[in-house]
């Protein structure tokens, strides 16, 4: 039964017509649009023009290259009204089309935007040099020259355009390198990019140089393949202008599937067929590393020439660094190193982490809007020259759950004034334990664990460990469960030891979050590769080594524990070819701490959430208004409900001249009856007769058109306190499926606000007869069990009046028989029961009184025996049917005697008193167990309403 409060709210709310729904939708849309426009700059129209621009670059500056470009100009931009510019670069494997949507967004807010396809990709000429300062960076400088010559571009000096440079991944590194090489750049927004390309592809987590790093073969192979054939993708900067991983590489792919974007262009130099469009030195370095699995000084030097790490001290352009937490290619530490190197020179720097990345795409909408706002704010001040200087606060986010509207992920953003770096603002140590263990390195590193793969950094958590660490190839060390949640923001560290018969070992250190059921999650699939040399053969002689794991943003819930895993092979990395068995353990022996960085920040109201807060405020105002209306209505009703009709004070229910009309029919024409203490009253009628409508009015679920209802003398109105003396089951049960039956009953009673002592909980459970099933979740209940639970709910508190609509619905015959006994027992000690049912036989055997309704009016009412009336045919249940037949055949006035098929006799006594027939049988020594008139309630019912009767109401 719905609570009285919900019933009152339902009546107080306006009826939801189609017109009202449309109006409300339009208002919400307008409000959302107004807030969006309020936080995003004014948008303008623009034009876009494609052209091939020839530039000269190379080590000597005279190498010709043709670049495929597209130029976006806002309407109204001219020599008299110049606008600032943005040079927008794509990611590896992309083209100018990759960033089209982002360029359009920037043009719409007033920037002239130049996009281009980098050399070696698409229709552009030249070879791929991996953002070489002599090639790709000089190409970009020549494009700045081109912008400076445009009359509609604002300039700071002749040949010096007012320009910001944006890009993701490959394009992000270009932005950093270009700012270091060309002082004309006014601001940059590099996203999910690298600090040291050699360390990115040859990482080592104990601090060793990249030449000793572990080759990241998965990502390297994907990059090399995209430069020799098809591209890695053509996705843009998700969420609008430069707000996330923008690129054609693996960043920002809307559906995680790479699409064509690279490849050879017509007339491009073929060179070595195995190298495709890569420059020979880049190709040779890759082939050597991929073949041996080890870096060389020459290869490391080549990659470092394309790394911002070597030129950070020359970057003067204010820098907004955006990095993704779901990124096994360029993890968060890359942005941390860039930020520290740039800020060391006094250059304004801001760092923003988000939940996406090369493995996580653009992140939830809340993340995209946050980063979009930060980017627009950064460019607005440092390129347009508008607004106050942006804050240098550090912002990050973590996944908070699912959106109730579209089931997409929702990220919550946080900020803190001082950038803490990957070391965190504070740390917490959590002990892990486990003995040293032997682990095998398989030949050629195969088979290998699957922790991270390009485009799928969280694969291990998705697979739930099915394709994770392999038996015999990893060691586990566990912590105790956490007493409270812990937010990890930064790079955890752990101390390990290892012994190897070869003196060397390559290990992959992982930190899992394990829930109470044992399901393990590897945050973003991040792994710390380690190459250890000079190892002893005995673990007892091994020295501890501190491993710095990749930075993460992850909440470990209370009750979860941490697991440190040391594995010997990983699908994403190159492992030693020779098989070996290592012994690995914790740095402190059988126990050791994991140091976890933490940051406590303030939640961020992102632009996406602004309009939600406004709507929430409006909804709150509406709710407050409804509460006020309900309170006023309730107070008004209570003012008229202080008197008691003395003649009905001891009567559970009195209905007088009840009428209920709808727009096109009359459901209840005129109904009046009483239910007295000790009675079980059945409300009968054909479908549509008005039974359920009568009960709905009685329970306050709908208002009557006319008439009055009294409960123990109190006139019944919505919200009347006397409703607490009624228990009801009307319109079927409604329970929370994930809770047990017992918990559902407890929750219902708590919602009434009445003291627990008044619930009579155990008595109601005994009456319902659910047994131990009451502690099972309701989702496992059959329909009949739900019905019995609903009856138990109606009986909580043992109300003086029980109102039940079809209480035996869904019950089997034994349960129906038990329900008869339950209702009869209940109508004792001054209580009463009103039952609506279409099972006439049940009403006949259960109820003391009956009310027959037809076409909205009562056609008969009174004790069941009176409604059934006398019958000339009687059924006798006797101890000896043969002897009884002989006695009855000799009696005068008995016409026929026949068996009933169950050992009894059906006798037509033709007016002879039943008592005389019984006396004759007893004198003859025949025992009489039962005498039942053969006319049933069904016969009387059909006589009253007719076999083809149809009502006007609902039931």
Automatic annotation (TrEMBL):
Origin organism lineage: Bacteria, Bacillati, Actinomycetota, Actinomycetes, Micromonosporales
InterPro entries, sorted: AAA+_ATPase (IPR003593), AB_hydrolase_fold (IPR029058), ABC_transporter-like_ATP-bd (IPR003439), ABC_transporter-like_CS (IPR017871), Galactose-bd-like_sf (IPR008979), P-loop_NTPase (IPR027417), Xaa-Pro-like_dom (IPR000383), Xaa-Pro_dipept_C (IPR013736)
SMART domains: AAA, PepX_C
GO molecular function annotations of the record: ATP binding; ATP hydrolysis activity; dipeptidyl-peptidase activity
Compositional bias annotation for Gly residues: 235-249
Family to which this protein belongs: Belongs to the ABC transporter superfamily.
Stretches that traverse the bilayer: 610-633
UniProt entry keywords in alphabetical sequence: ATP-binding, Hydrolase, Membrane, Nucleotide-binding, Transmembrane, Transmembrane helix, Transport
Domain ABC transporter: 653-880
Keyword Transcription: no
Protein name: ABC transporter ATP-binding protein
Region (Disordered), start-end ranges: 235-255
């Amino acid at each position: 039964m719905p609570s009285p409060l919900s019933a009152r709210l339902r009546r107080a709310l306006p009826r939801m017509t189609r017109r009202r729904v449309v109006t409300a939708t339009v208002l919400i849309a307008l409000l959302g649009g107004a807030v969006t426009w309020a936080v995003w700059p004014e948008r303008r129209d623009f034009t876009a023009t494609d052209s091939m621009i020839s530039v000269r670059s190379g080590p000597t500056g005279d190498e010709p290259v043709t670049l495929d470009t597209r130029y976006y100009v806002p309407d109204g931009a001219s020599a008299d009204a110049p606008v600032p510019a943005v040079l927008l670069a794509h990611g590896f494997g992309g083209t100018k089309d990759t960033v089209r949507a982002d360029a359009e967004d920037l043009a719409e807010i007033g920037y002239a935007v130049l996009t281009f396809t980098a050399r070696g990709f698409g229709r552009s000429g030249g070879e791929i040099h991996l953002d070489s300062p002599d090639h790709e960076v000089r190409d970009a400088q020549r494009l700045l020259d081109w912008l400076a010559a445009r009359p509609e571009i604002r300039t700071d000096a002749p040949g010096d355009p007012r320009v910001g440079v944006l890009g993701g991944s490959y394009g992000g590194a270009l932005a950093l390198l270009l700012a270091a090489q060309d002082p004309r750049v006014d601001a940059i927004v590099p996203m999910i990019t690298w600090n040291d390309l050699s360390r990115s592809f040859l990482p080592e987590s104990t601090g060793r140089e990249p030449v000793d790093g572990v080759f990241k073969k998965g990502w390297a192979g994907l990059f090399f393949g995209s430069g020799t054939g098809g591209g890695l993708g053509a996705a843009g900067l998700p969420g609008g202008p430069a707000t996330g991983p923008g690129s054609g590489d693996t960043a920002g792919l809307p559906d995680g599937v790479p699409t064509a974007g690279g490849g050879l262009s017509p007339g491009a130099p073929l060179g070595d067929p195995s190298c495709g469009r890569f420059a020979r030195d880049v190709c040779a370095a890759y082939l050597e590393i991929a073949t041996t699995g080890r870096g060389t000084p020459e290869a490391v030097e080549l990659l470092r020439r394309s790394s911002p790490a070597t030129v950070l001290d020359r970057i003067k352009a204010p820098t907004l660094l955006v990095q993704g937490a779901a990124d096994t290619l360029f993890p968060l530490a890359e942005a941390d190193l860039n930020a520290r190197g740039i800020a060391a020179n006094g250059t304004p720097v801001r760092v923003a982490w988000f939940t996406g990345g090369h493995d996580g795409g653009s992140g939830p909408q809340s993340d995209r809007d946050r980063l979009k706002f930060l980017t627009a704010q950064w460019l607005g001040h440092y390129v347009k020259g508008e607004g106050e200087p942006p804050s240098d606060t550090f912002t990050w986010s973590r996944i908070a759950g699912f959106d109730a509207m579209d089931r997409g992920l929702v990220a919550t953003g946080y900020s803190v004034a001082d950038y803490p770096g990957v070391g965190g603002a504070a740390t917490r140590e959590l002990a892990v334990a486990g003995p040293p263990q032997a682990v095998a390195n398989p030949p050629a590193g195969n088979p290998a664990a699957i922790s991270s793969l390009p485009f799928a950094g969280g694969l291990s958590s998705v697979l739930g460990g099915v394709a994770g660490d392999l038996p015999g190839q990893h060691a586990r060390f566990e912590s105790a469960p956490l007493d409270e949640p812990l937010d990890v923001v930064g790079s955890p560290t752990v101390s390990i030891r290892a012994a190897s018969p070869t003196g060397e070992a390559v290990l992959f250190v992982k930190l899992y979050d394990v829930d109470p059921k044992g399901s393990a999650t590897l945050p973003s699939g991040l792994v710390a590769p380690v190459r250890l040399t000079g190892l002893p053969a005995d673990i007892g002689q091994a020295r501890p080594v501190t491993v710095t794991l990749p930075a993460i943003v992850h909440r470990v819930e209370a009750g979860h524990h941490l697991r440190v895993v040391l594995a010997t092979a990983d699908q994403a990395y190159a492992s030693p070819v020779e098989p070996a068995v290592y012994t690995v353990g914790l740095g402190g022996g059988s126990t050791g701490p994991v140091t976890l960085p933490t940051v406590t920040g303030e939640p961020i109201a992102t632009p996406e959430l602004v309009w939600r807060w406004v709507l929430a405020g409006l909804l709150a105002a509406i709710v407050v208004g409804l509460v006020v209306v309900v309170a006023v209505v309730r107070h008004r009703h209570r003012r008229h409900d202080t008197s008691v009709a003395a003649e009905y004070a001891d009567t559970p229910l009195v209905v007088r001249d009840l009428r209920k009309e709808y727009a096109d029919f009359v459901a209840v024409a005129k109904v009046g009856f009483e239910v007295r203490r000790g009675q079980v009253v059945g409300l009968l009628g054909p479908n549509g007769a008005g039974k359920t409508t009568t009960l709905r009015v009685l329970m306050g679920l709908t208002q009557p058109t006319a008439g009055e209802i009294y409960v123990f003398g109190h006139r019944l109105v919505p919200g009347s306190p006397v409703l607490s003396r009624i228990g009801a089951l009307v319109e079927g049960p409604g329970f929370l499926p994930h809770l047990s039956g017992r918990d559902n009953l407890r929750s219902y009673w708590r919602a009434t606000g009445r003291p627990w002592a008044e619930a009579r909980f155990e008595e109601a459970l005994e009456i319902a007869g659910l047994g131990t099933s009451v502690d099972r979740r309701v989702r496992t209940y059959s329909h009949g069990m739900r019905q019995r639970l609903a009856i138990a709910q109606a009986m909580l508190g043992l109300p003086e009046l029980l109102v039940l609509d079809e209480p035996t619905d869904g019950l089997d015959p034994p349960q129906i028989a038990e329900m008869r006994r339950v209702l009869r027992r209940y109508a004792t000690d001054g209580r009463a029961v009103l039952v609506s049912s279409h099972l006439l036989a049940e009403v006949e055997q259960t109820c003391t009184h009956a009310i027959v309704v037809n076409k909205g009016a009562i056609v008969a009412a009174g004790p069941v025996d009176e409604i059934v009336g006398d019958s000339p045919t009687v059924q006798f249940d006797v101890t000896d049917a043969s002897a009884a037949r002989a006695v009855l055949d000799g009696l005068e006035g008995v016409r026929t005697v026949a068996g009933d098929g169950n050992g009894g006799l059906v006798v037509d006594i033709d007016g002879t008193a039943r008592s005389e027939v019984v006396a004759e049988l007893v004198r003859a020594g025949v025992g009489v167990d039962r005498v039942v008139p053969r006319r049933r309630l069904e016969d009387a019912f059909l006589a009253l309403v007719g076999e083809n009767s149809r009502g006007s109401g609902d039931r």
